[in-house]
């Protein structure tokens, strides 16, 4: 990501060509082919049909891609990042309902990302069939095209771990050649009939759309939509190359696209009566308008462009999943940053899922003609939801008239695209809609489950947990569970402690230790940040640690914990520890360390709605499949303890059981030997005994947070009824006695 989103550099501009424009650059490969298939072939179209199609394509690219995305959407960024999730992050404060269109649009975008590699690469490879010397080979081996496509796709997904910076620089030069080739081929055919530029008049498009000569009817707009399918990816990839570089390169891209589309139109008009082409099945004007010798170069370049188009969607998918994770709409996944720019990332799980799903598309639909029949349906949903979110942002920016005009205009256009694309549902659109529903289910259930968990999360202040911990720390009757017990927590606030950690320490058999540690990890936007801060609450046995690690820094928690323990030991903040027996880390200056992770589980007696229970159960199932912090933080060699704590979303009392037999009195046996005085046995409920006092302190500490909530509510009610707010209640939080912060 650029230091300034408007900064323009030649190097990054080349990367923009390679990463951002790949998808929209392959649209000429199949848009005209799909148009002819919908009209019944080349012999069924006349001049009005060709000019109408060209007019609709030109104005769709102009309105949707240029006006909506390049000129409007790209001015609305979130710290340089684009895409529907980054946009939602800007406006979610305006209403909880905005999460619905954001989730729906993101799910649809990810679903359609599966079809882009398949349709782009397969349509390019099929260009080999147009060469006479190779026709016999492909006729004898019908699956040869499919096999070549599969090999290319597998190779593409295999190199993703190297990052888009290297791929973009290589692809950028090729895309520059590709768009130049599109423009040259288009101009070559335009030289025979410049009159096709009459299609710049939108009347031709509107007239043909509603003409009885339009065999496809309103479904024609579904074909026209194929020319704009790269617009959403262009917006999503803005964070990778910067807004300024896209502004700088877009005019060249649009001119090349328009020249090629109009060149195909000129070729169709010139050959509409040619029997050689009118009888041809699955005619593709893109390849046919070239001489046979040029087609070899066209196939090579188009395959490269197809790979680049796939790269654009894969890159956008990585970005969207990363943003969904930060929104708590998806589970935490392992993210790698192959380059020094945080915007360029790689998510192994997403890469693998996309690869498998793309291969499944090829196995189901076989060729580009059938894939393109399903392509674009889900993406229309993404564009509609993006329009809604952009309209909300413009409205709350104070431009209400502009927001109304923008929303009404683009919703009308994109609603027409959606209705037209619904004709694709039975022809394969069901596949992307099914994927959209599955991804949406994951997002929704993960979000709902997270909200339920957070509603039950409680925190304790030092005055609440220190007395009980101090009692346990000095209770020599309880053996040490470990010298150091390290808890991982998602709470980054160092002035408090999760109640879950407190319960874990005292549940069942208390976990006594020389020191307890609560550790959180924060990832920064700088690549190589290595910082930590420590809060010890004025004690030498409880430490609250917060790591601040750059996004390229390995999150090897055990190594950092050892360093912090040594640092605190040198400063005297941590008492000296000696390990008597050998340990896995072979560090004699630090005692034994046990890592504890806490997971939540829904209990049968929890009082929760059916929807809430489904969300929680689905979240826990997804979490098991997505991976574990044990792997993310390098804890596996240290035999971490994974605890499951009950999640009580308000509980219902279970019904009492009824005893069916008769109670029998058992006589007290006469003692045959002396026994201890019962009064000498400590009673856990006796507050005069050590154990009884500990239980009493524990109960008091556990309920302290609830008492504070009640007192705060009561104080607020009194203040509200008082005379001009004179009645005040509450005390300032006690300042921590000691803290330390070091940087490495």
Automatic annotation (TrEMBL):
<feature type="transmembrane region" description="Helical">
    <location>
        <begin position="401"/>
        <end position="423"/>
    </location>
</feature>
<keyword id="KW-0406">Ion transport</keyword>
<feature type="transmembrane region" description="Helical">
    <location>
        <begin position="50"/>
        <end position="73"/>
    </location>
</feature>
<keyword id="KW-0472">Membrane</keyword>
<dbReference type="GO" id="GO:0005886">
    <property type="term" value="C:plasma membrane"/>
</dbReference>
<feature type="transmembrane region" description="Helical">
    <location>
        <begin position="12"/>
        <end position="30"/>
    </location>
</feature>
<feature type="transmembrane region" description="Helical">
    <location>
        <begin position="215"/>
        <end position="235"/>
    </location>
</feature>
<feature type="transmembrane region" description="Helical">
    <location>
        <begin position="94"/>
        <end position="121"/>
    </location>
</feature>
<dbReference type="Pfam" id="PF02705">
    <property type="entry name" value="K_trans"/>
</dbReference>
<dbReference type="InterPro" id="IPR053952">
    <property type="entry name" value="K_trans_C"/>
</dbReference>
<protein>
    <recommendedName>
        <fullName>Probable potassium transport system protein Kup</fullName>
    </recommendedName>
</protein>
<feature type="domain" description="K+ potassium transporter C-terminal">
    <location>
        <begin position="486"/>
        <end position="644"/>
    </location>
</feature>
<feature type="domain" description="K+ potassium transporter integral membrane">
    <location>
        <begin position="13"/>
        <end position="459"/>
    </location>
</feature>
<feature type="transmembrane region" description="Helical">
    <location>
        <begin position="429"/>
        <end position="447"/>
    </location>
</feature>
<feature type="transmembrane region" description="Helical">
    <location>
        <begin position="371"/>
        <end position="394"/>
    </location>
</feature>
<feature type="transmembrane region" description="Helical">
    <location>
        <begin position="141"/>
        <end position="159"/>
    </location>
</feature>
<comment type="similarity">
    <text>Belongs to the HAK/KUP transporter (TC 2.A.72) family.</text>
</comment>
<feature type="transmembrane region" description="Helical">
    <location>
        <begin position="345"/>
        <end position="365"/>
    </location>
</feature>
<feature type="transmembrane region" description="Helical">
    <location>
        <begin position="296"/>
        <end position="324"/>
    </location>
</feature>
<feature type="region of interest" description="Disordered">
    <location>
        <begin position="660"/>
        <end position="682"/>
    </location>
</feature>
<dbReference type="InterPro" id="IPR003855">
    <property type="entry name" value="K+_transporter"/>
</dbReference>
<dbReference type="InterPro" id="IPR053951">
    <property type="entry name" value="K_trans_N"/>
</dbReference>
<feature type="compositionally biased region" description="Low complexity">
    <location>
        <begin position="671"/>
        <end position="682"/>
    </location>
</feature>
<dbReference type="GO" id="GO:0015293">
    <property type="term" value="F:symporter activity"/>
</dbReference>
<dbReference type="GO" id="GO:0015079">
    <property type="term" value="F:potassium ion transmembrane transporter activity"/>
</dbReference>
<keyword id="KW-0812">Transmembrane</keyword>
<keyword id="KW-0813">Transport</keyword>
<keyword id="KW-0633">Potassium transport</keyword>
<feature type="transmembrane region" description="Helical">
    <location>
        <begin position="171"/>
        <end position="190"/>
    </location>
</feature>
<feature type="region of interest" description="Disordered">
    <location>
        <begin position="714"/>
        <end position="744"/>
    </location>
</feature>
<keyword id="KW-0769">Symport</keyword>
<keyword id="KW-0630">Potassium</keyword>
<comment type="function">
    <text>Transport of potassium into the cell. Likely operates as a K(+):H(+) symporter.</text>
</comment>
<dbReference type="InterPro" id="IPR023051">
    <property type="entry name" value="Kup"/>
</dbReference>
<keyword id="KW-1133">Transmembrane helix</keyword>
<dbReference type="Pfam" id="PF22776">
    <property type="entry name" value="K_trans_C"/>
</dbReference>
<feature type="transmembrane region" description="Helical">
    <location>
        <begin position="247"/>
        <end position="270"/>
    </location>
</feature>
<keyword id="KW-1003">Cell membrane</keyword>
